Amino acid sequence: MFARGTVSRSLLREASASASFKRFASTKAFGGQSLRETLKEVIPAKQEQLKKLKAEHSQTVVGDIKVENIIGGMRGLKSMLWEASVLDPNEGIRFHGLSIPDCQKVLPPAPNGKEIIAESMLWLLLTGQVPTPEQTRQLSAELAEKGNLPKSVEDLVDSLPQSLHPMTQLGIGVSALNHDSQFQAAYEKGMKKSEYWTHTLEDCLTLIAKLPALAARIYRNVYKPGTALPALDKDLDLVGNYTQLLGYGDNHNLTEYLRLYIALHGDHEGGNASAHTAHLVGSTLSDPFLAYSAALFALAGPLHGLANQEVLRWQLAMQKEIGDNITHENIKEYLWKTLNSGQVVPGYGHGVLRNPDPRFIALQEFCQTRPELKESPIIQLVNKTFEVAPDVLKEHGKTKNPYPNVDATSGCVLYHYGLTEFKYYTVIFGVSRALGALTQLVWARALGLPLERPKSVSMDVLEKLVKA
Ligand SMILES: CC(=O)SCCNC(=O)CCNC(=O)[C@H](O)C(C)(C)COP(=O)(O)OP(=O)(O)OC[C@H]1O[C@@H](n2cnc3c(N)ncnc32)[C@H](O)[C@@H]1OP(=O)(O)O
Ligand SMILES: O=C([O-])CC(=O)C(=O)O
Fold first, then answer.
1. Residue to substitute in 277, 344, 393, 432 for testing ligand 1 pocket (most ligand atoms within 8 angstroms of CB)
2. Nearest-angstrom CA–CA distance, 210 and 152
């Protein structure tokens, strides 16, 4: 299915059986093809696959629509194409067939690091292939080259009130970058449909490249006004530059954590609110900057990305109330207090997952390898909460998934490392989610996917349908 020099899906799956990993790792060096060349090679096979599906199976039934799907936020309804990742309720996310541990084994890290970096994850998401270290470096260099913000966007962001939520500022900044959209300019000139994806790809790479400078500028304006932003370092990876710009560049452990965080949050199949928003808005052929700014506003809701800020707020309030005597009994009591006051337990539950989120596990494992995190009071509280919360939520009896999602720990590690401004945390998520949402935009244009326009019904119509 994949072009020459690629790793097939089945081989990627096999990769999770660790015995085959050495073989797999040695087959991943495919020379120095660029990202664009690689995509040009893999796209025709996917176009063919879609053409065949349409021709042979357009009328094949693959599921039922129940009333609960219509009134229940479309949970479980298979109704959109998404190429880069698939979420299994029990196993969690796989990126082109690779689980998180698989990715940790095969995706190249930064030269001075061990964790997955944004570039290697982006390459995998876009192409279905594991990049070589050289390909990863090539992409890092390109992103660093393109990373500066235009003056107009700098001025716009600098003019925003300090009190405006950082996520609102990020959405505004991203949408304003569409001033220079290559896709929009080419569309105005009348480009052919077959050229959509190439211009989309250029905009997507430009946007991903500029996100660290934009996100860091917002951080500095809001929390460290008057401090100077360093220049982008052409030898650093995207996240290496991001931590430098934030002012935490000399904290290697935080940089490594952010590399892992940003790679892991990159994609979570298509139905989550931010990815789906990018897909919906992008389906109108609005440019990647507009589509992704819309996605950011979905991410900014407390049931979605903003939960990572809410978790920290909630854990700190718990810490304050319990004091030093942190026992299972005390945590249990606090959980019941939260639930009995009609609030959700942030960081727990999920629209699809029915087991602990493997992203949560991966971040917890990161904490276990760092003595400073193992001993951190906030991380210990997260761990103790995990020991108690599932049983309390089961007893409460409402949530279909009593286990932690990624937000249950992600912000707490940042807090430990001194990045304590929790209203900023979802911005970091926003830097990450671009990897998957923009990947799909490229694929949607390469495959010529249509305008998204589901049918809605009123309750009266639904009643008639039910009776019929
Ligand atoms: C990166 C991410 O976006 S991961 C998700 C981050 N969000 C959070 O952590 C917020 C807390 N969790 C939640 O609110 C939910 O679990 C969601 C939004 C993530 C998923 O929602 P759903 O798919 O509707 O969950 P589910 O079907 O299990 O909900 C059934 C009931 O359990 C409740 N429930 C779900 N999770 C929780 C929770 N963590 N605490 C308390 N109650 C919960 C729901 O509010 C719902 O109650 P209702 O019947 O009174 O409306
Ligand atoms: O999948 C979802 O609905 C929410 C989520 O975990 C994500 O978007 O990362």
1. 344
2. 13
Question: ipTM of the predicted structure?
Answer: 0.99
Beta-carbon contacts of 195 under 8 Å, excluding residues fewer than 6 positions away, are 186
Collapse the DSSP code of 93 into the 3-class scheme (helix H, G, I; strand E, B; otherwise coil) and give the result. strand
* Token output for 401: 């998934």
C-alpha distances out from residue 184 to 209, 226, 282, 406, 444, Å: 18, 35, 12, 35, 16
Instruction: Find the 186 Cα to ligand 2 centroid distance in Å.
Output: 33
Between 1-15, 226-240, 360-374, the lowest mean confidence (pLDDT) is in 1-15
Ligand 2 binding pocket (C-beta < 6 A) is: 268, 272, 351-352, 405
Q: What is the rounded average pLDDT of the residues 231-248?
A: 97
Q: Cα(441) to centroid of ligand 1, in Å?
A: 28
Calculate mean pLDDT across residues 289-311: 97
Containing 235, the helix (H) or strand (E) segment is none
Helix axes of 425-446 and 118-127: crossing angle, nearest 10 degrees: 30
CB 177 within 8 A of CB 296: no
- Residues paired with 86 in a beta bridge: 94
Q: CA-CA distance, 355 to 358, in Å (whole number)?
A: 8
Write out pLDDT tens, residues 168-219: 999 999 999 999 999 999 999 999 999 999 999 999 999 999 999 999 999 9
According to DSSP, residue 162 is labeled T
The pLDDT tens digits of the residues spanning 241-272 come to 999 999 999 999 999 999 999 999 999 999 99
What's the predicted TM-score (pTM) here? 0.93
Mutate to test the pocket of ligand 2, among 272, 308, 425, 433 (most ligand atoms within 8 A of CB): 272
pLDDT value at 298 more than 70:
yes
Q: Which residues lie closer than 8 Å to 291 by C-beta, 6 or more apart? A: 277, 278, 279, 281, 282, 437, 441
CA-based R_g, the chain, Å: 22
